[in-house]
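thought: fold this chain, then report.
action: predict
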Amino acid sequence: MTKIIVTILAVLLTIFPNSGFLLSNYQNLTFLGEDAITDTIVEAINNNDADTIEAMLSQHTKENGENLNQKIKELIAAIDGDIIEYQEHGSGGDGEYSNNGVSIKDKSWKILIKTDTGKEYLVCVSWVIVNTSNPQKVGMKTLRLIDTDFNQIKTIYTPTT
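observation:
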């Protein structure tokens, strides 16, 4: 059913490209959800797959970040061992703004990972779900790796705006 709705919204957006309401609903429905994104990130880390993580970044992040693929590889390499267990570890916060046809919705969460070497890390994910004024910002905004002593190890990209 969701695929049908997404398809209808995509068609309507081609007819009414300036409709904030349609764009907001389309962007909201195409968000895969925390669980699916978390699973994909963990699998990509375990497989040393920087390309999959890079593909999740928003167009804005890709255009404004420098050496993103290399930074993702460094983040993956900074994890000591293979991930043997992971779980979502609390929300980093949700935000929602809507005014005069402009809607912005974002979400942040943490993933606690444990490796086969006994190390634990937090992977902090920040994601823009809806942005009708700047659709190129929809997607992963930033990704951070923090050890359990809360020492930041790697940050892929920190947006200035």
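thought: worth noting. The chain has a mean pLDDT of 79.
final: tokens above.
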